[in-house]
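INTERNAL TRANSFER SHEET
From: sequence group
To: structure group
Subject: D-serine/D-alanine/glycine transporter

Please process the attached sequence and return the structure record in the designated field. Keep the field labels unchanged so the import script can parse them.
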Amino acid sequence: SGRFHPQHPVRFLPPPYSWAGFFTGWTYWFCWVVTGIADVIAISSYTQFWFPGLPQWVPALACVGLLLTLNLLTVKLFGEVEFWFAMIKIVAIVALVATGLFMVTGGFVSPSGHAASLANLWNDGGMFPHGMMGFFAGFQIAVFAFVGIELVGTTAAEARDPMRTLPRAINSIPVRIIFFYVLALIAIMAVTPWREVVPNKSPFVELFMLAGLPAAAGVINFVVLTSAASSANSGVFSTSRMLYGLALKGDAPTAFGRLSRAAVPSRGLLFSCVCLLGGVVLMWVIPDLVEAFTLVTTLSAILFMFVWSLIMLSYIAYRRKRAALHEASTYKMPGGVAMCMACLAFFVFILVLLALEADTRQALIASPLWFVILAVAYRFKRKA
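Return from structure group:
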């Protein structure tokens, strides 16, 4: 029916662990708000393809208004919109990979004189033309690209047969990454040498422009725009539900725990969309969309690493305190605790990298402010 009917009563965690749920829930909400702001900025950038003179805040405001309207109507509409957004993305990426392969095998030569070839992946300075630090600098956006991967695990509570569907979903992730991410990047870089990539333009659109298909370029620009809108739509959906869950646990104002006649947590939805308008303000403060996007995506990556770290620490605690239940599991995480420790060490490594780059250091310095705000809010909550 799409309505919220908790199957189990809400269980309040005793101190000192109640802070973890409070910090995780609100940080996860803020993560998706920040991610939504990044998507709104991206949508404004893509709109410049058709309307280069349009003020950047106009498409951002229109996007937030559209997402709010769609999510207020019905829960079912969210699923329908996401299905078609996903179908559009899949068809577009397949077309991109096929076009790139055709240009490589057909001997395409760019206007600058570079021939489309797989050799472009390692020519013109080698695989690491800016050294290893140039390679590591890309880790920030790579971490941001994996935002939302934890949703695979959270669906276990709502899946009809999690013992069968969850392993299939998790095991298919590497295959999907290879095809939809790695192959798409190879197609782009094989046609366009890295020196010719324009930072403030979509490489997907530029590839079809080089292929002599300006109409297709417009279609692909629409595709990447819908992709960003899909991510923002997921963010709006998840943040409103997170506020609903926090309200039920007493970690958020009770108003967020009320549903509309359409069984939608409308007040949490309105609050999240108002927060998304922060993207409009940010674009006014920082007119350079690339700089604003880097700042927001870095902050999102930092906060998501915090949430992922708490998930892994919870797993380690679960194995220690519920060893029998873990042993009875038929689908265990490869590597167990050792893999968790490796992931936590990798996150520390990422934080060090963010501190070394000027364009990501600002977000790293600002991120502790969020946890200070949470600490103050939690202290007031405990006294209430």
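Handover comment: The domain at 18-383 is CATH 1.20.1740.10 (Amino acid/polyamine transporter I). Residues 1-17 have pLDDT under 50 and may be disordered.
Transfer complete.
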